[in-house]
Design a protein that fits this description.
Strands 1-2-3 form a 3-stranded antiparallel sheet, with no helix packed on it. A two-stranded antiparallel ribbon has the order 4-5. By secondary structure, it is mainly α. The protein starts with a strand and ends with a helix. 19% of the residues are buried.
């Protein structure tokens, strides 16, 4: 392709530059293709949703750690809840609770700390889920109306919200 004063040489002819990705050459002129525009907007929406999902996945990993560690924490929380529900019997301390008992910390205190930490994690994960799902709904709605800039704004707002959530947890 050779560019000659705002004209492009393509297939042996001179053409004006393609106005947008939604325009197609009909042999004489660039013609806007509304179906192509819709498809491009939806494709961009899915790219933005994937970006939000990836940020949420990274945040989730930062909050909960690897999946096996998350399972360990969930089991400890379930054991601590059962221990609490049973009235903290001293002769029936679950191993996952006993593992957190240390000098100066009773089994009851250990169970309460485990439950508190589990509640915080659950709240953070639900906040993250809400941010992610609301953003994806907004992105798709705006892109469906042809408002890709607003869809990008919704994605940017979600990414800022996810970063703020992580920064708030780590500080």
């Amino acid at each position: 392709m050779i560019v000659i004063q705002e004209l492009h040489q393509c297939d042996g002819e001179l053409r004006l530059p393609q106005p947008s990705a939604a325009h197609e050459w009909d042999g004489q002129n660039w013609v806007f293709n509304a179906d192509r525009k819709i498809a491009l907007d939806l494709q961009e929406a899915e790219r933005l949703c994937a970006k939000v999902d990836a940020a949420a996945d990274n945040a989730r990993n930062a909050m909960a750690g690897d999946p096996l560690k998350a399972m360990e924490y969930a089991q400890a929380a379930a054991d601590a809840q059962a221990f609490s529900d049973a009235g903290y019997p001293k002769k029936e301390v679950p191993l996952s609770v006993a593992a957190w008992v240390a000098k100066g910390r009773t089994a009851k205190q250990a169970a309460e700390q485990i439950l508190s930490k589990a509640e915080q994690l659950t709240e953070h994960l639900l906040t993250l889920r809400t941010l992610r799902l609301k953003a994806k709904a907004q992105i798709r709605a705006q892109a469906g109306k042809g408002k890709v800039d607003l869809a990008r704004g919704a994605a940017d707002d979600a990414l800022i919200g996810i970063r703020a959530l992580i920064n708030g947890i780590s500080s």
